[in-house]
Design goal:
Residues 5-80 form the ACT domain. Residues 48-75 form a coiled coil. Pathway: Purine metabolism; IMP biosynthesis via de novo pathway; formate from 10-formyl-5,6,7,8-tetrahydrofolate: step 1/1. The chain has helices at residues 16-26, 58-67, 94-104, 123-128, 143-154, 173-178, 199-206, 241-264; strands at residues 2-11, 30-39, 44-53, 74-79, 83-89, 110-117, 133-135, 161-164, 183-188, 210-217, 227-234, 268-271, 274-277. It is of the alpha/beta class. α3 crosses α8 (241-264) and α7 packs across α8 (241-264). The protein is globular and about 60 Å long. The two termini are 24 Å apart.
Length: 279
């Protein structure tokens, strides 16, 4: 018995679940778990179905499903396989370290094919864990030249997702378009929000009581792409800048790894500038 994950998004209408399950049964697929959600405001239907069975012809199943779904339906059939990722970094190690340690012990749910950095700072750590590290200097280059070098490296591998593990460079519209829906970012998210350098010092000076982090897909609008997951921690007057930074890094790691787990397990649908996440 082989595992199969079926992802469907389409306009909502009566009888969708019946039509879908009938098609799966006709191909001798046993449903292990099924989650569905209807976005009533946009009249959109989403479902994630975990199946088991001996599927002989995936294309025929896909055609059968599409025949019984509304126009503009999207169907994705996924056999169990690990995603392939590239990680982009600058100098901060905490998110990269979490990813590479889980990769080392085969608990990431993906394979890290390479790490690309615009500083040499994280080369030794990366290579000690057997992962290729590529340095791309951003100094004395325009953005298009820098990004062209990064793309050349990425294109050496068959990459499913790019993970920005505290990669402190703003990507161009063209770069984001080339990897649309495939770039995941992590950033601090304070209430109130602080932009620019030293956000944790700004938070300390403002006396915030909550710090947080957000993992999201990257779009043309800086830090405004579809949100995958968020968390917050309470802080108080006992937190100095160092304690604030330490707490912030811990929550950034937690949020990024949670988002990656959801994505690697095919639990995230993008709908406009929002996500539907089946946990």
């Amino acid at each position: 018995m082989n595992a199969l994950t079926v992802l469907i998004s389409c306009p909502d209408q009566v009888g969708l679940v019946t039509n879908i399950t009938r098609a799966l049964a006709a191909h001798q697929l046993n449903i292990i778990a099924m989650r569905e959600f209807v976005d009533e405001a946009n009249k959109a239907f989403f479902t994630r179905i975990a199946c088991k069975g001996n599927l002989e012809d995936a294309e025929k199943l896909k055609e059968k499903l599409l025949e019984n779904l509304p126009n503009a339906a999207e169907v994705n059939l996924i056999t169990k396989q690990e995603k392939q990722i590239a990680v982009l970094v600058t100098k901060e190690y905490h998110c990269l370290a979490e990813i590479l340690i889980k990769n080392q012990f085969k608990t990431l749910g993906a394979n890290v094919k390479c790490v690309i950095g615009n500083y040499e700072s994280l080369r030794d750590f990366t290579e000690k864990l057997g992962i290729p590290y590529f340095f791309v200097d951003h100094n004395n280059k325009d953005k298009s030249e820098f990004e062209a070098e990064v793309k050349t490296i990425i294109n050496r591998f068959e990459i499913d997702y790019l993970v920005l593990a505290k990669f402190m460079r703003i990507l161009s519209t063209d770069f984001v378009k080339d990897f649309a829906g495939k770039i995941i970012n992590i950033h601090h998210s304070f209430l109130p929000a602080f932009i620019g350098a030293n956000p944790y010092r700004q938070a300390f000076e403002r006396g915030v009581k909550i710090i947080g982090a957000t993992a999201h897909f990257v779009t043309d609008n800086l830090d405004e792409g579809p949100i995958i997951t968020q968390h917050t921690n309470h802080v108080d007057h006992n937190f100095g800048v160092k304690e604030m930074v330490r707490a912030g890094k811990e929550i950034e790691k937690k949020v990024l790894l949670e988002a990656l787990e959801l994505i690697f397990e095919d639990r995230v649908f993008v709908s406009g500038n929002k996500t539907v996440v089946f946990k």
